[in-house]
């Protein structure tokens, strides 16, 4: 049984508590938040969990094995570092840290102390992403041409980060998981209209093998869109996460270049066949992830969403920020 | 009555012939194509129209007042120049020319000879774009935050141009028409997979007033998408051109930054009200444009889609190409 | 403060407990279910609520003011009757009772004892139905032509009732609320394929003023549909309850018959204008209904979803059953 | 080469002329319409086709092999009869005739004279219906539970027939083709609001094996719907004819009744797997049908959409009318 202390009970905290407290093998021992009103909600919903406004007390508590860091990004490093120093495993909200240097320091610290870091890349545990991973690994899609993701809606504006740091970690962590390689360079564009942080932004990620990834994030969209297109040379895929029942559509469509003797131009021929919607497991992603955290901590296995995965995402975010500042210049990672 | 000679009877030519031949005030006198099979189709469909494989014959024919250039881009300049030299008005397919220098030369030539140039930016005459223009001009949307357009489908790969030159002229000409200003700089990203021309590409256009435009074009998409989001400070709009009846949706949604005394962070408040789908005129855009061409030629008025408009679009395409070559560097126009 | 005893903790029970226990002015005092496993769930989720497998104990408990009957239909009458006899107000799941005679007996009993009956026609409290009611009452739609509702999905097959008794009470209670009149006659068709109860069925309801209502219910549909069309002489409306944000669409469309002098046939002219999607309140319907129950009990006001409303729905269901047995013959109510 | 005379050039006539005149093996020799304006359109579009306002001239013309009857229903019988008497094959618009007695007389006449009757059940030749036929015949769907079709839109009101006679022939002819058996009885409901003919109507068709078909037709719907659900014991299917690319969705979903020892109630278990969208041939249905007419006339083969098929549809329409008059009473065929 792993006993967990939760730091932060804001928007996402209740989901973390509910999941870690209802799976076998874990128990939420304590919740900390600086806001007493948040703690009142914990007391009502989970009378058995102790609460505190003093995080250091919980981080150092002897009856606690792991700390879940569910606070704003800027505080992740400090809290996670303290927790690792106290010998606790950590489960950290995405994005992992504010800088890749911080990420590196935490990874090294955890390695030295033989502790587990898991970054909450929840989507990796969704039925949709697991199914897409399976399709890519089994080479159903073939070599990939592009990964094109749109994640837009109205708000919620963050005070400390721009829309790329807020929304793109979802897409970047999914991309990092699905595609074995990492991008070599990043180009980002965007503007800010309301609070000085970019609220409309675009990221292009260049890969070695001519693959390109693109991410469109926007806090000022009147409609919510969560759509990812993945084009492969054998099949193409559309993932619409807002669809209740038909999240993934796999198209037997493609184009092929053919040379013809004596003809200079390449002839492009097209293929268009059936479409197929695989059944996708509907288990709550965070529940699977919570179970997986317990497994990784117990067995000492490195998670797929370990500190390295978290750091790779932070490196891409840093590159995007640098490109934004250089007005779209390509930034190598 | 304006008598028109059509050069080129490929994919788009039949629509040009049908529209110019069925409106009042114009008559298609001749069609030229190098491919005799194409001309056979003309003879069957329009027995009264004379045909020829020799374009210069038609361009210099005395009974012809105007030439419609419906050929691949690389030949626009040469044909249009010859036509203007022969004293004919010209109606040129989009994109206007292969370079902005060519565009400039044609504009000057037409001005000297007092002839009309119209570039076939067909979408400006669609019910949807006319309605959006009205909404913007009447300040229903308020100051614009962004213009975000996606135009993707499977093929048709072009042999001589990349996907930006093929598909983005639609979006750029619409953007140029709707927004009074022109972009100051452009950042483009893209890769090619099949025939050496970019087949997946993205363009960001920066405007002086913090507005950003973005265009996503792709020849390797399994699904056809034709969607433009336009965010304004008063209203936001989604135009889905594939919808039969509900092409434009106007959302009474927005976000506003408020300062509060003693509070450092800006408070962002959201507004979310009704949505409204205006009825959009369904008249064929090309028919209206053909009528407009006749009017402009007859009255000597400069069209909204004149050579200057055509040149602005070509300048943006050139900037995109330069940015692509510089791997995303911002290119000023 | 109203203290409530809940009888039945199956599919819907948890929602009833959660809502009645979290609003002001009410408290769930006890939950009864014959299944001890169900009660274990109550104990985990709501440690403060006492549980019992013996309903009569709860029904007669002195500290309880009202009984919510959340059991299968066949048991509603008996439980509700006992509760009324014990002087408790009752909140009864839909459909109210198995027969209209039972409904009448309960209504009379409650009247004699001055107690409140509320039938759980939850949809009346949804933002969508409240908005439609407003539109009809304010004569935005004009006189109604038809009410056409489709409510189909795969399962859940009920053991004791057919698909009309299972699904149509939603549509019938909504129809009864929206339309001031009651149908004069009903025609029903249907067949059964698996367990002897009709699993695919259709109901037409004839109203005095030429209005017709139609309800399509089906347990064997591969897709879930929750769509209601309401046609009025001034406006027409589509309510798609599965839409997240655009539940109600109001069309400025219509047809009108005109006579022309000397022409025998009526000329029908059509009107097609804008479409409008009003913002719909997203408050949980059951929460509003729970509050309303407390208000009605406290003030002694008759609810809109009182025993009479419940009885009218049961009468329509009985008529449908009779029509089914007579193979579609019209049954007058 | 079959020479064809077309009687009637209204809404559908131009399609008939275009298709019969562009396939190999047929030629439209003449078009007749009482309205001289209609004939002017023929002259413009098809200068080679002779026109007349006198139908009998065309029906008896020696150079004509077959007559296409594209007039309002009430005139089908008279024109087709005259054509058959003159030794011409006939291609008749749906519905075939105004009464089944008329249909019978035409069938007998054609048989005596060894002539072909084809009723224009165009949908049988659409890619979607051909694919569904294949799926049913290959027992992919298994035994059918139901066939549920919705065909609604705003107008066009007909002057001489109600909405069932106008729209349901599509569904009835498709149903008749897909399902080997014919319905035993029909129940219809409906009302009229504008011109005295039912404009909102519903038909239930009972088959011997517990299958039920239902057709929902409406001239007063603000939205256009063309959706058919077909439930089989092995697979279920949704055909949405308004979808551009994904017309047919096949669901691996179902329900099964299981008996358990000692348990009275049947246990229903559900199956829910992948969904599959087969590619559907996009050839114009009427073109295939025109070719098929030429083949049938040339070879003397009876068409799938022969007079018998036309008569079966008329019988169902007659039964629906009788049921409407009897206020929903079941009418046996």
**Secondary structural class of chain A:** alpha/beta
Under CATH, the topology of the largest domain in chain A can be stated as Dihydrodipicolinate Reductase, domain 2
Radius of gyration of chain A: 21 Å
* Span of the ends, CA to CA of chain A: 40 Å
CATH class placement of the largest domain in chain A: Alpha Beta
Mean pLDDT of chain A: 95
- Biggest β-sheet strands, sense, barrel of chain A: 9 strands, mixed
Query: How would you spell out the order of helices and strands of chain A?
Result: EHEHEHEHEHEHEHEEEEEEEHHE
Domain tally of chain A: 2
Poorly predicted regions of chain A are none
Which two chains touch over the largest interface? A-B, 59 and 59 residues
Can you describe this structure in just a few lines?
By secondary structure, chain A is of the alpha/beta class. Chain A has 9 helices and 15 strands. The interface between A and B is large, with 59 and 59 residues.
SSE layout and pairings?
Four copies of one chain form a homotetramer.
Chain A: E1 2-7, H1 13-22, E2 26-32, H2 36-45, E3 50-52, H3 55-59, E4 66-69, H4 76-85, E5 89-93, H5 100-113, E6 117-120, H6 127-137, E7 144-154, H7 163-178, E8 185-191, E9 200-206, E10 212-218, E11 220-232, E12 236-240, E13 248-258, E14 267-277, H8 285-299, H9 307-325, E15 331-332
Give an overview in words.
Four copies of one chain form a homotetramer. Chain A is of the alpha/beta class and 333 residues long. Chain A has helices spanning 13-22, 36-45, 55-59, 76-85, 100-113, 127-137, 163-178, 285-299, 307-325; strands at 2-7, 26-32, 50-52, 66-69, 89-93, 117-120, 144-154, 185-191, 200-206, 212-218, 220-232, 236-240, 248-258, 267-277, 331-332. Chain A folds into two domains: 2-115, Rossmann fold, CATH 3.40.50.720; 124-282 and 315-332, Dihydrodipicolinate Reductase, domain 2, CATH 3.30.360. In chain A, helix 1 (13-22) packs across helix 8 (285-299), helix 4 runs parallel beside helix 5 (100-113) and helix 5 (100-113) runs antiparallel to helix 9 (307-325). Chains in contact: A-B, A-C, A-D, B-C, B-D, C-D. At the A-B interface, strand 7, strand 8, strand 9, strand 10 and strand 11 of A face strand 7, strand 8, strand 9, strand 10 and strand 11 of B. Strand 14 (267-277) of chain B pairs antiparallel with strand 14 of chain C, so a sheet runs across the interface.
């Amino acid at each position: 049984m792993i006993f967990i202390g939760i730091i932060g009970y804001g928007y996402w905290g209740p989901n973390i508590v509910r999941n870690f407290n209802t799976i076998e093998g874990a128990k939420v021992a304590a919740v900390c938040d600086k806001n007493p009103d948040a703690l009142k909600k914990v007391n009502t919903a989970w009378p058995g969990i102790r609460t505190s406004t003093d995080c250091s007390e919980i981080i150092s508590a002897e009856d606690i094995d792991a700390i879940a860091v569910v606070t704003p990004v800027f505080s992740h490093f400090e809290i996670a570092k303290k927790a690792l120093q106290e010998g606790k495993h950590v489960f950290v909200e995405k994005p992992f840290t504010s800088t890749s240097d911080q990420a590196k320091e935490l990874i090294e610290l955890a390695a030295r102390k033989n502790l587990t870091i898991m970054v909450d890349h929840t989507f990796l545990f969704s039925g949709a992403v697991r199914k897409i991973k399976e399709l890519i690994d089994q080479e159903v899609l073939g070599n990939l041409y592009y990964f094109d993701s749109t994640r837009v809606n109205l708000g919620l504006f963050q005070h400390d980060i721009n829309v790329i740091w807020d929304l793109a970690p979802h897409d970047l962590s999914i991309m990092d998981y699905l595609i074995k390689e990492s991008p070599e360079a990043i180009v980002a564009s965007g503007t800010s209209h309301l609070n000085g942080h970019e609220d409309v932004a675009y990221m292009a990620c260049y890969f070695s093998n001519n693959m390109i990834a693109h991410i469109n994030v926007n806090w000022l969209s009147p409609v919510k869109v969560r759509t990812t297109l993945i084009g492969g040379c054998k099949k193409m895929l559309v993932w619409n996460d807002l669809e209740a029942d038909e999240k993934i559509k796999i198209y037997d469509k493609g184009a092929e270049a053919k040379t013809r003797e004596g003809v200079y131009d390449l002839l492009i021929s097209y293929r268009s066949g059936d479409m197929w919607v695989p059944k996708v497991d509907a288990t709550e992603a965070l529940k699977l992830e919570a179970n997986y955290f317990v497994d990784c901590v117990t067995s000492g296995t490195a998670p797929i969403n370990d500190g390295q995965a978290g750091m790779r995402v932070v490196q891409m975010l840093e590159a995007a920020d640098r490109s934004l500042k250089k007005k779209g210049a390509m930034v190598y990672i």
